[in-house]
Automatic annotation (TrEMBL):
<feature type="active site" description="For ring-opening step">
    <location>
        <position position="135"/>
    </location>
</feature>
<feature type="domain" description="Glucosamine/galactosamine-6-phosphate isomerase">
    <location>
        <begin position="9"/>
        <end position="225"/>
    </location>
</feature>
<dbReference type="GO" id="GO:0019262">
    <property type="term" value="P:N-acetylneuraminate catabolic process"/>
</dbReference>
<dbReference type="GO" id="GO:0005975">
    <property type="term" value="P:carbohydrate metabolic process"/>
</dbReference>
<dbReference type="InterPro" id="IPR004547">
    <property type="entry name" value="Glucosamine6P_isomerase"/>
</dbReference>
<dbReference type="GO" id="GO:0006043">
    <property type="term" value="P:glucosamine catabolic process"/>
</dbReference>
<comment type="function">
    <text>Catalyzes the reversible isomerization-deamination of glucosamine 6-phosphate (GlcN6P) to form fructose 6-phosphate (Fru6P) and ammonium ion.</text>
</comment>
<dbReference type="InterPro" id="IPR037171">
    <property type="entry name" value="NagB/RpiA_transferase-like"/>
</dbReference>
<feature type="active site" description="For ring-opening step">
    <location>
        <position position="142"/>
    </location>
</feature>
<keyword id="KW-0378">Hydrolase</keyword>
<dbReference type="GO" id="GO:0006046">
    <property type="term" value="P:N-acetylglucosamine catabolic process"/>
</dbReference>
<dbReference type="GO" id="GO:0004342">
    <property type="term" value="F:glucosamine-6-phosphate deaminase activity"/>
</dbReference>
<dbReference type="InterPro" id="IPR006148">
    <property type="entry name" value="Glc/Gal-6P_isomerase"/>
</dbReference>
<dbReference type="InterPro" id="IPR018321">
    <property type="entry name" value="Glucosamine6P_isomerase_CS"/>
</dbReference>
<dbReference type="GO" id="GO:0005737">
    <property type="term" value="C:cytoplasm"/>
</dbReference>
<dbReference type="Pfam" id="PF01182">
    <property type="entry name" value="Glucosamine_iso"/>
</dbReference>
<keyword id="KW-0119">Carbohydrate metabolism</keyword>
Amino acid sequence: MVKIRTFETAQLATVYVAAIIEALITAHEHPVLGLATGSTPVQLYRQLVEFHHQGLHFSHVTTVNLDEYVGLSADHPQSYRRFMYDHLFSHIDISPEQTFVPNGQAVDLAAECARYDKILEAHPIDLQILGIGHNGHIGFNEPDQALQTKTHVVRLAEDTIVANTRFFSRLEDVPTQAITMGIQSILQAKAIILMAFGSDKAAAVRRALSGEVSTSVPASFLQMHPQVTFVLDAEAAVEMKMLGRDPIYSALEP
Ligand code: GLP
């Protein structure tokens, strides 16, 4: 069963997740972190940078990101490679060769997907961090009649494109395709933490945990994984009551 940890604020929830990552990095010789982009993990990365300033090292860590827009260069301000550089990689002691993000500018996208699957095979993920889209997507696995298991190219859903316009000056500039890890690749992580903050995520969180597994809510597949924790703030947890699961606020100890 999916564990749910609810905190009064997103800040407390973030400190909780950062402490889990710190413990993993400290305990493992070669930890592999699966990382996500979006506004949800921004404070998490800030906290990890803070831990680095206090002495936490990342030189033995490998990171594998979930997804990347097709067509954006690695240094485009809205590319996920650039996001990771700006928010985390440039502030910690990790070498670029240990950080993997799909190449959205690959000429042969099918070959790039196959290359990324090989990377995932070579670096089994110890802990995968996820956000969730309003439509229940994880990575860029959008609701569909069928979901792909491995790394693949997706056409982004209309509502995802609209949601992403806030990062681009014009709707026409928002990429319409992305490369994303597949559902099976995500489920292969040893442990998964999905973070969701704010009332606008409450319905997606409820649908992901409803007990049904459906391709119309990709995050619902997480219910099949043995070690998943949803880390929520109070607002994202408001619809938990509809599932008969009262949000009990957690203290910070794991
Ligand atoms: C994008 C990313 C997802 C992320 C989602 C939610 O679609 N591909 O990995 O979870 O946005 O983003 P936010 O955290 O900004 O709400």
